[in-house]
Design a protein that fits this description.
- Helix 4 packs parallel to helix 5.
- The chain has 6 helices and 5 strands.
- About 40% of the residues lie in helices and about 5% in strands.
């Protein structure tokens, strides 16, 4: 943590594990450091797990699922067309609005910044901004909001994995 706090104006407040891979040990470290996490799915709203506030992610809202293309035969499919991704993202946003859910969009600086992909992002964000009652917030602000709620309003998830067969 020291290397993260030497230069920035403020210390990190949250954690996202690479490729959203989380272990019980990592979750315990996140809890020990007093950070929120944004590496797990689970729900369409913030929740508590192992004493950690989780700001959930979802694969459907990750640009890598649609556009990460390495070539060389290792890819499962070619990149999606921008219109397809926009349609998926807009439908997810609209559905989440019906159910009061959280849209956590994950974009990577080496995937989305192509002109045609940026247009998808601009179009989606314009729709979100125009939606009455939508709150566009940083993950740390969402974690603060969740933590400000009384305990009885916190969703809880078990940090232990179910026993296997």
């Amino acid at each position: 943590m020291t290397s993260f706090t030497v230069r920035p104006a403020s210390a990190p407040r949250g954690f996202r594990s690479p490729a959203w891979e989380m272990t019980p040990h990592m979750l315990a470290e996140v809890q020990r450091l007093g950070l929120y996490d944004s590496s797990l799915s689970g729900f369409d709203h913030p929740y508590q797990i192992g004493g950690v506030t989780e700001i959930p992610v979802q694969w459907a809202m990750d640009d890598a699922v649609y556009w990460k293309f390495l070539g060389g035969g290792g890819d499962l499919a070619p990149p999606f067309a921008p219109a397809q991704v926009l349609e998926i993202w807009q439908q997810e946003w609209r559905g989440l609005q019906d159910f009061g859910g959280l849209l956590m969009l994950t974009v990577h600086d080496y995937i989305t910044p192509r002109a045609h992909r940026l247009k998808v992002l601009e179009t989606l964000l314009a729709e979100v901004r125009e939606t009455p009652g939508a709150w566009i917030a940083r993950a740390c602000d969402l974690a603060d909001w969740h933590n400000s709620l009384s305990e009885k309003h916190h969703w809880q998830a078990s940090p232990t994995a179910p026993a296997g067969p």
